[in-house]
Amino acid sequence: MTAIPQPHPKLGALIDALGDVPVVTEAATVRKRSRDFFWYSPILNAQLHGKSADVLVSPRTEAEVMRVAAACARFGVPITPRGAATGNYGQAVPLHGGVLLDLSGLTEVEWVRGGVVRCGPGLVMSELDAMLAPQGLEQRLHPSTKRRATVGGFVAGGSGGIGSITYGGLREPGNIRAARIVTVEPEPHAIELRGDAAQKVNRAYGTTGIITALEMPLAPAWPWVEMIVAFDTFAGAMAFGHAAALADGIVKKLIAPIAWPLPSFFAEVRPFCPEGRAVLIVMVAEASVESFKALLGGDGDITLERPASDAPGQTPLYEYTWNHTTLQMLKADRGVTYLQCLFPHDRVLESVGEMCAMFPEELLGHCEFIRFGGRVTASALPVIRFSTPERLDAIMALHEAHGVMIANPHVMTLEDGSRHKRADADQIGFKREVDPMGLLNPGKMRSFVPAPRA
Amino acid sequence: MTAIPQPHPKLGALIDALGDVPVVTEAATVRKRSRDFFWYSPILNAQLHGKSADVLVSPRTEAEVMRVAAACARFGVPITPRGAATGNYGQAVPLHGGVLLDLSGLTEVEWVRGGVVRCGPGLVMSELDAMLAPQGLEQRLHPSTKRRATVGGFVAGGSGGIGSITYGGLREPGNIRAARIVTVEPEPHAIELRGDAAQKVNRAYGTTGIITALEMPLAPAWPWVEMIVAFDTFAGAMAFGHAAALADGIVKKLIAPIAWPLPSFFAEVRPFCPEGRAVLIVMVAEASVESFKALLGGDGDITLERPASDAPGQTPLYEYTWNHTTLQMLKADRGVTYLQCLFPHDRVLESVGEMCAMFPEELLGHCEFIRFGGRVTASALPVIRFSTPERLDAIMALHEAHGVMIANPHVMTLEDGSRHKRADADQIGFKREVDPMGLLNPGKMRSFVPAPRA
């Protein structure tokens, strides 16, 4: 066993208590697995550098999860659950060492019926869709990291993505049907959270119980066609994207306008992104392609059109959207970062235009049309040329001053990262029940105060 | 052959020219089949009383349709296509005698693939859904007359219905993929109208060619649950219905708030409509029922919940919505009629409330939530206690003066019945091509002037 820098004093006893639950203590591996994609943010990159768990534990069943939870509670060891760690806020980075709980082994599909799947949190989302495809079904929503991300990781650390143009975000009633969680106590128990109650684990970064099963509603797995459409201007891509987003007869999964020069960083599909032009990346059901093209008319030029696929060998176009857009540029230029914006639905085009005009040198426009609260609007992950933390804060403040909601992606706590700058009251209250000692991902829900030790 | 009152002078020659295409000339039958449900309107009832074709012709193939069209063109005989004649504007009532073209024999399903069906116009919509069900598919939209109405009749005379809360109306790009029509000329030909072009036959009352095939996009056939929810007030039913309509994670097909005393006329389900209370009739996917109930909370009381079915033996709840609401009351009280309203999406609840308050004695509130142009709003078919035509006009004018769009259902022409009070320019232009002599359903497109005879 490699030496661990300042491990938790009870670590050895804890590991002994885990019996045959797989454990890795080799420091380089544990450090590597303790990271997520927080490095998109220069602020978080500085703050989270070097943070690591002491031990990686990989349970294969809910019973093993309970065994880990019991041991951590008994020895007072922090426990940070992780899926594929594709998040960008340090969700899965342990701030206080302890156990990194790898849930990727919980991949059982319990059942699929009536348009719903119940499965373990560790299933990779593209693998789940591949399993569902023969039944003509697929997940309603997925992040751009679908080929790596897990179902549980998305629920615990995400908010929406591809599919949100039809179903809205994970917060919408009905988009998470139920979650089963395990408490962190000397004698852990499982709790079934149904309906609204399942929101207690949504985007809670694993602070409110360890997810061991999820019941997720499904969508019809239409044959999807993905396209790149080139426009002379970003405003043109936005305007047509908005019209397409509002066209309820056109079945769609993704509408993402992206300003030049971002497409110049789109490695494999660079040849389909004409120099100097904005692009719109879309996923439309095959049955709606003809209508989509009729709506487009002469407004833009389709430069690429092909069946969408998650299979290896071809990068799905959704991997150039949402925060993958940022990633494509970061691969070439580490001097950029990004924001998370939500524009007002009743003046979405004007508002996006204002923000682009306000920061002509610093902001590279990039939106996704989504439904939010039943209305079509745009969220955005604009790429920002980073100068200083103060300037980044100022850019966000200017957005908010102009009616654009910001979910700050440069902070590590739930509270600071939410649009409302506070933790959900339900989540805080629930945490007291399920993690009274505050061992779950400590430091991420900063408004939580553990109960005094008995 | 029974004597026909004032038949077209060339009728005998025309019938001879039809060969073995089935023909009925028995006057009582022809008169009966020449009616639709225009009698919901006291105005139309007076105007259309006694209108009848001279002969009912029932082709079984497109070739036979062409034979009829050719004969009508040669002998200058009017030709009025009809599906199941479930419309309410006299769409299928021949104003000038001639041929009533019964298209209910064209029922071939050419193919089903990629989420699309291509079929004859005469298929009854519930029968088509029954055929599609084994593939997990169904039609996106249907009228409340689904168990009688035909696919072609809906396209030619309808605008939206059950399903419009998700897909909008038939006018939305993508909701009619293609239509094949036959022209009325001495040598008829068929024209394929794809995408936008297919709108040339939508709600044109059969004036712009005889539909012989339609390509319609499909939706997933979720197991649907239908419910009646009782509310103390119509405003309460509207407010919750609006919230449910905006909940994109809840998959739904119908949300119809209906004010008391309308539910007192709902024969079979009267026991589930509590005295004095408004009801909301909904169809929700089984997977979304739990979320729907969570959203409802204590706002209303579910008095009936059961699997939705078009099968004989049970009246589907959608037959208490859309214009079936009016019908249920008309069965008991012939003193009522109805309006067709579209409320502004940005103040829908206020606007509906204003109209209810403006006509407390005359207007019985009844709405359907729909998507229109990508926004959730309400259309309405309020029941009106009829006094005089002048008062009916005044009520409609007052709606329009308060920002509510009206499609007048008490007029028989396309122009007067549209929200914009004019025929679609595309439809008029197209009619010149496909029906140069103006023989198709003459009198319904009043702005059309036939070309001078050569």
Q: What is the CA-CA span between the terminal residues of chain A? A: 35 Å
The unreliable regions of chain A are: none
CATH architecture of the largest domain in chain A: 3-Layer(aba) Sandwich
What percent of the residues of chain A sit in helical stretches (DSSP H or I)? Answer: 25-40%
- Described by its quaternary structure, the protein is homodimer
Q: Strand fraction band of chain A?
A: 15-25%
User: What class would the helix/strand composition of chain A place it in?
Assistant: alpha+beta
Tell me the greatest interface: A-B, 45 and 45 residues
Q: Total helix count of chain A? A: 14
**Alpha carbon gyration radius of chain A:** 22 Å
Whole-number mean pLDDT of chain A: 95
CATH topology category name of the largest domain in chain A: Vanillyl-alcohol Oxidase, Chain A, domain 3
Would you count the extended β strands of chain A for me? 21
- Please name the fourth-level CATH homologous superfamily of the largest domain in chain A: FAD-linked oxidase, cap domain/gating helix
Overall morphology of chain A: globular
Domains counted in the coordinates of chain A: how many? 3
Major sheet of chain A: 6 strands, antiparallel
User: Quick one: CATH class of the largest domain in chain A?
Assistant: Alpha Beta
SSE inventory with pairings:
Two copies of one chain form a homodimer.
Chain A: H1 11-17, E1 23-24, H2 27-33, H3 42-48, E2 55-57, H4 62-75, E3 79-82, E4 99-102, E5 109-113, E6 116-119, H5 125-132, E7 137-139, H6 151-157, H7 164-167, E8 178-182, E9 190-194, E10 210-220, E11 224-231, H8 234-246, E12 252-258, E13 278-285, H9 289-296, E14 301-307, H10 323-330, E15 336-338, E16 341-342, H11 348-358, E17 363-364, E18 367-372, E19 375-380, E20 383-385, H12 389-401, E21 405-406, H13 414-417, H14 425-434
Parallel strand pairs in A: 2-4, 3-4
Antiparallel strand pairs in A: 1-2, 5-6, 6-10, 7-10, 8-9, 8-10, 11-13, 11-14, 12-13, 15-20, 16-19, 16-21, 17-20, 18-19
Helix pairs in contact in A: 1-4
